[in-house]
Amino acid sequence: MSDAALETLGIWLFVPSLALIFVLAVVQRNQVSRSSDPVRRQQQRKRLTTVAREQHDRGELVIDWIAFRDLSRADLTEVLGKHGWHYRRQEITGREWRLVFCTTTS
Question: Going by C-beta distance under 8 Å and a sequence separation of 6 or more, which residues neighbour residue 32?
């Protein structure tokens, strides 16, 4: 193989590899890990408990899941279920992912 062909082959292998490493680094940096920070998870659970207590008389509770991004939907349902809230539906709009809960199962 000639030197020019080896150089071209090296470039064709190096550039995509570098791009892949960059993309993986960006994805890893921006990835939300639900269990990475237990302190933040606990803070969000406490804040959700406060919201559940304060809003109980309203009959319907809309939670922006992005505000509680470290909690899974099962965590949200568990915490809110202890205060009489039941999952009803979700609404994805723009920059919000709303979960709607109600105090009755109907």
Answer: 69, 70
